Amino acid sequence: MTDFPFLLAMIAVPAVGAAVVAALPRGRELLAKQVTLGITLVVFLLAVLATIAFDAGGDRFQLTTSVSWIPDFGVDFALGVDGIALVMLLLVGVLVPVVVVASWRDTPPGNRSMTTFCAWLLLLEAMMVGVFAATDVFLFYVFFEAMLVPMYFLIGSFGGPRRQYAAVKFFLYSLVGGLIMLAAVIGLYVVSSSELGEGTFAFDALRQIEIDPGVQKLLFLGFFIAFAIKAPLVPFHTWLPDSGAEAPIGGSVLLVGVLDKVGTFGFIRYCLPLFPDASRDLAPLVLVLAVAGILYAALLAMGQSDMKRLVSYTSIAHFGFIALGIFAFTTEAATGAVLYMVNHGIATGLLFLVVGMLIARGGSRQIGDYGGMATQAPLLAGVFLVAGLASLALPGTNSFVSEFLVLIGSFPTVPVYAILATVGIILAALYVLLMYQRTMHGPARGVLLTDDGTAAPGGSTATAGSTTTGGATASGGGPATGGSTATLTAPAPGRLRVRDLGRRELAVAAPMVALIIALGFYPQPLIDLIEPAVAATMEDVGADPGGVEPATTEGTD
Amino acid sequence: MLTAADAIQAPSLSLGALAPLLFVFGAACIGVLVEAFAPRDVRHPVQVAVALVGTLGGLVTTLLLAGDRTVTAAGALAVDGAAIFLQATIAGLGALSILLFAERALDPARSTFVAAAAVPAGSPRDRELLTAERVQTEVYPLATFAIGGMMLFVASNDLLIMFVALEVLSLPLYLICGLARRRRLLSQEAAVKYFLLGAFASAFFLYGLALVYGSTGSIRFSDIRESAGAGGTDVLLVLGLALLIVGLMFKASVAPFHAWTPDVYQGAPTPVTAFMAACTKVAAFGAILRLLYVAFGTSEWTWRPLVYGIAIVSMVVGAVLGLTQTDLKRMLAYSSIAHAGFLLTGVIGFGGGADGQSSGLGGTMFYLLAYGLTTLGAFAVLTLVRDGDGEATHLSQWAGLARRSPLTAAVMGLFLLALAGIPLTSGFTGKFAVFRAAIDDGAWPLVVVALLASAVAAFYYLRVLVLMYFSEPAADGPTVGVPGLPTTIVLAVTVTATVVLGVVPGAVLDLAEQAARFVG
């Protein structure tokens, strides 16, 4: 069974599926969605089987496949995973089917077809698997750039009112980063050809060559800027709030949950092992950016009135934690960082999804347009609370484990940064709980008030003009839904026309909530997968694993 | 065996090595005869057939020559790997252009070319002819002559032949630029502008030729190479080289010698623009490569700083000025200027190998092939989108095209992504090849500039994508014509090539790499 090319299948199945779905005739949207869901579930199954076939104590890269692709450039189509990549593949496998179900009843703007949405989604999934599974730097770069195209169309065709601006901004930022990385990729190739006699892009070979420190710094910066834009770290972050806010909910989940992780994944997979000296020399720079991001993005998040922008800013803060963990150079912190990559995908993914459910009901992204939802939609409020608590890393939720590992692991080597980052936790509690409190508690108010014409004329009519109806709004929970409105025809003032979570929405939320709690109490299986790969990386970078040995064992309890 | 003939020895001609040229020029001459003797109603199909047979024959014979390395015609022609690869590229792209010329299904008057070019624009006779199905068929022999000239250009092994080839390829081009059926004044203006500036550039080339001859005493590349390698700083030689470069860069539409490009690209009939953008660029770069690598390969210092600077100017001008364009043909013209700069980064990646082999040469040749096919396809798509006044090339008219015609938009989208150099398209492979060669040669600052210019240029390609896909269609938007067989073939070939050269470029790259050898 281990001979089965899982990784190739995980790329080929969705890629072929995308072509099949795209070829379906117009008007067969239901069939397209069913096929898409089926394919994504197959990919999930493959990811699980790949995890079973993976031996955590075995070689660094497993499930490898390699065929020569462009011999002239020395490029192989080489796939393989270590523990870090594997957990990211699991995350992809979980998130994409959830997104498909969550987008089930979206109506795209301008009578576009959901068939197209599904096709781009599947293509994106193939690219995401490829980018994590590539063990050839050139192949990684190809997936890294090609991934932009489906996401660009997802944002630009199916997003909110300012989707054109957001899509172009997303594409250009990523492209600039990618092109700078391309220069470094070629530079790396040239270095390898002078060191080894023959140019190569194979990760394993590149890892072993000694590069002149000056050249190393330049190459490191080339890769780093690309990843820092992708992740994003603070001075490069301005595209994310726009894209996160304008993308359709499903797109936002994948954008923040997976695509941006390619940046942090790149730090740990490429920057550290390939350029160990430069990584150590320039680590203070990265740490400053990381901690600045944690604090600055948290402050900005508190100031947002748009929920999707707020969640995007919280992610920037979380990416700061991840970068801190990676560049603290201890196995423990880096393990925490990788675990954080998974947990953040789940927690923020759920937060985006639940915000999307809220927007589907009210048609507005503004926090001020909602209030007092908890009394009439307790399930919605409950899921919102769980997602929020997971985001602020409450003990018992999954994020706590990873955040704690990052902080405790970075304290011995970079205490000042660790202490400053701790302040971010307090800020996180503030921005999440304030949003929760304003939308879910207090008196009923906002756009969902039944008597919105008379009771709150100023509030709701003003917002109706200025606020933005999310591009892909679900029709199901909208204010015009017949059944629930009929029962509330003569309400007391202050009643909300709102329906609690439906079965489909529960099916979206339930697995995510389950994961948040399960990984909060028992993260060990994931840590077992991640830790050997992280330890190997730390060995590459020459960090002293001995110095953090006690903490490592303690952290994995 | 001594005879009187020894006194005037006829140069030995290797007919096999000359076969592609003979094929194409032969077809052009037959085309002239057809024009004179064939009755008008059969002229068009016959001309198309002759031109296609000529160019495809040229393509097939070059392919049969693959691997040949000869210097023939008393050392005037070098038929080597690079020449054969570039000749095949020109012949293939030329055949595709001829197909675009032959399209009769799109324009209501059944051709994009004017019925009678000599009739003054706007006169009653002209208005009468506007809807006539008559068409001027001289365009086929003219284009075939131009293709022949281009193929000669890339194989020329001395400066005089190069100059003759330059004129043979240029004169027909000047003419066919003025043959548009619609917007005739714009077209004629383009032809005159191209002619005047082109003549100026030819004069530069000729003056440079004279100075180089004055300095080295020879027009033969191998002799120039020897003198240039042996001598120290010879002002005449360097000055001559600079003038030669100016002449060639003009043809390649490299900034700062690009001023004609946007106007001519916009005014010329779109199939002719496609032809110029694809074939002329290949031919001009073929000549640049041969001049710099063969004649001045041992004195790299004479041209390297100049080309380095020109490459940066061209990339920046193409990328930045392209941002301000509102007409698609002008936009693609600036894109062509930017791409000329990228190609020059490949030229810089010369590697200094004395045996005339370098990764820069192979990479540049691959880039030329990839770019030629993509840009030809992009212009072919432009011919499809029309309103009452011919092609709708204003950007705003393309809004919401994807809704109206998803397939056309998808094809155009692919070409735009390839021009922007997104991976899995031919444009990326080409860029990678030339940038690798340049970095290999230590020119990494140039590559960084090139990458930043790519990012800037990507913005205007994206703008078209945004318009086509994310904008609401305009109420009185253009119609998308159903292409006839010729344009369909062109689109099929270019789309396939753009994808194949992006996804599995190995074989063609290998071919270019093996062909990357000069003799002489």
TrEMBL record, chain A:
<dbReference type="GO" id="GO:0042773">
    <property type="term" value="P:ATP synthesis coupled electron transport"/>
</dbReference>
<dbReference type="GO" id="GO:0003954">
    <property type="term" value="F:NADH dehydrogenase activity"/>
</dbReference>
<protein>
    <submittedName>
        <fullName>NADH-quinone oxidoreductase subunit M</fullName>
        <ecNumber>1.6.5.11</ecNumber>
    </submittedName>
</protein>
<comment type="similarity">
    <text>Belongs to the complex I subunit 4 family.</text>
</comment>
<feature type="transmembrane region" description="Helical">
    <location>
        <begin position="505"/>
        <end position="522"/>
    </location>
</feature>
<feature type="region of interest" description="Disordered">
    <location>
        <begin position="459"/>
        <end position="491"/>
    </location>
</feature>
<feature type="transmembrane region" description="Helical">
    <location>
        <begin position="282"/>
        <end position="303"/>
    </location>
</feature>
<feature type="transmembrane region" description="Helical">
    <location>
        <begin position="36"/>
        <end position="57"/>
    </location>
</feature>
<feature type="transmembrane region" description="Helical">
    <location>
        <begin position="114"/>
        <end position="132"/>
    </location>
</feature>
<dbReference type="GO" id="GO:0048039">
    <property type="term" value="F:ubiquinone binding"/>
</dbReference>
<feature type="compositionally biased region" description="Low complexity">
    <location>
        <begin position="482"/>
        <end position="491"/>
    </location>
</feature>
<feature type="transmembrane region" description="Helical">
    <location>
        <begin position="310"/>
        <end position="331"/>
    </location>
</feature>
<feature type="transmembrane region" description="Helical">
    <location>
        <begin position="6"/>
        <end position="24"/>
    </location>
</feature>
<dbReference type="GO" id="GO:0016020">
    <property type="term" value="C:membrane"/>
</dbReference>
<keyword id="KW-1133">Transmembrane helix</keyword>
<keyword id="KW-0812">Transmembrane</keyword>
<feature type="transmembrane region" description="Helical">
    <location>
        <begin position="414"/>
        <end position="436"/>
    </location>
</feature>
<dbReference type="GO" id="GO:0008137">
    <property type="term" value="F:NADH dehydrogenase (ubiquinone) activity"/>
</dbReference>
<feature type="domain" description="NADH:quinone oxidoreductase/Mrp antiporter transmembrane">
    <location>
        <begin position="134"/>
        <end position="424"/>
    </location>
</feature>
<feature type="transmembrane region" description="Helical">
    <location>
        <begin position="77"/>
        <end position="102"/>
    </location>
</feature>
<dbReference type="InterPro" id="IPR001750">
    <property type="entry name" value="ND/Mrp_TM"/>
</dbReference>
<keyword id="KW-0560">Oxidoreductase</keyword>
Automatic annotation (TrEMBL), chain B:
<keyword id="KW-1133">Transmembrane helix</keyword>
<keyword id="KW-0874">Quinone</keyword>
<feature type="transmembrane region" description="Helical">
    <location>
        <begin position="272"/>
        <end position="293"/>
    </location>
</feature>
<keyword id="KW-0813">Transport</keyword>
<dbReference type="Pfam" id="PF00361">
    <property type="entry name" value="Proton_antipo_M"/>
</dbReference>
<feature type="transmembrane region" description="Helical">
    <location>
        <begin position="12"/>
        <end position="34"/>
    </location>
</feature>
<keyword id="KW-0812">Transmembrane</keyword>
<dbReference type="GO" id="GO:0005886">
    <property type="term" value="C:plasma membrane"/>
</dbReference>
<feature type="transmembrane region" description="Helical">
    <location>
        <begin position="331"/>
        <end position="353"/>
    </location>
</feature>
<feature type="transmembrane region" description="Helical">
    <location>
        <begin position="365"/>
        <end position="385"/>
    </location>
</feature>
<dbReference type="InterPro" id="IPR010096">
    <property type="entry name" value="NADH-Q_OxRdtase_suN/2"/>
</dbReference>
<dbReference type="InterPro" id="IPR001750">
    <property type="entry name" value="ND/Mrp_TM"/>
</dbReference>
<feature type="transmembrane region" description="Helical">
    <location>
        <begin position="192"/>
        <end position="215"/>
    </location>
</feature>
<feature type="domain" description="NADH:quinone oxidoreductase/Mrp antiporter transmembrane">
    <location>
        <begin position="156"/>
        <end position="454"/>
    </location>
</feature>
<keyword id="KW-0472">Membrane</keyword>
<keyword id="KW-0520">NAD</keyword>
<feature type="transmembrane region" description="Helical">
    <location>
        <begin position="73"/>
        <end position="102"/>
    </location>
</feature>
<dbReference type="GO" id="GO:0048038">
    <property type="term" value="F:quinone binding"/>
</dbReference>
<keyword id="KW-1003">Cell membrane</keyword>
<comment type="similarity">
    <text>Belongs to the complex I subunit 2 family.</text>
</comment>
<dbReference type="GO" id="GO:0042773">
    <property type="term" value="P:ATP synthesis coupled electron transport"/>
</dbReference>
<comment type="subunit">
    <text>NDH-1 is composed of 14 different subunits. Subunits NuoA, H, J, K, L, M, N constitute the membrane sector of the complex.</text>
</comment>
